[in-house]
From TrEMBL:
One of its GO terms (cellular component) is membrane. Keywords: Membrane, Transmembrane, Transmembrane helix. It comes from Luteimonas marina. InterPro entries: Mercury-R_MerC. This is MerC domain-containing protein.
């Protein structure tokens, strides 16, 4: 009992020390980069770049899944609605004021489609 408690305390101390070290080393770097990151996050080209990577990647993942096992129409509709929301948000259509809500809803729908797709596949490692 004493040995397992000691091991647990040692592991906790090592973990906390590591977290402290990471915090101390990365916080100054992050504080230095935040203005740059904030400026890049507001640039319109960043949104387009993310969508340019996200949509083909999502399409490829769903297409490969469909080749292995046909996707339900509802799942495909969910993915397409999410992709449309992401694209509309990145393009600022129909209004710039809707950019954030469209992007958030679109990414949520697309992520939900991916989770649903992942859950419907067999997972041999876990036997489910």
């Amino acid at each position: 009992m004493r040995s397992s408690l000691t091991s647990m305390l040692d592991a906790s101390a090592i973990g906390l020390s590591t977290l402290c070290l990471i915090h101390c080393l990365l916080l100054p770097v992050a504080a230095t980069l935040l203005p740059v990151l904030a400026a890049a996050g507001e640039a319109e080209w960043v949104h387009g770049l993310f969508v340019a990577f996200a949509l083909p990647l999502a399409g490829l993942a769903l297409w490969r899944a469909h080749r292995q096992r046909p996707l339900p129409a509802l799942l495909m509709g969910l993915a397409l609605a999410g992709a449309a929301g992401l694209a509309a948000g990145a393009l600022g259509w129909p209004d710039d004021a809707l950019e954030t809500p469209l992007t958030v809803v679109g990414s949520g729908l697309l992520a939900s489609a991916h989770v649903w797709n992942w859950r419907r596949r067999p997972h041999p490692a876990c036997g489910c």
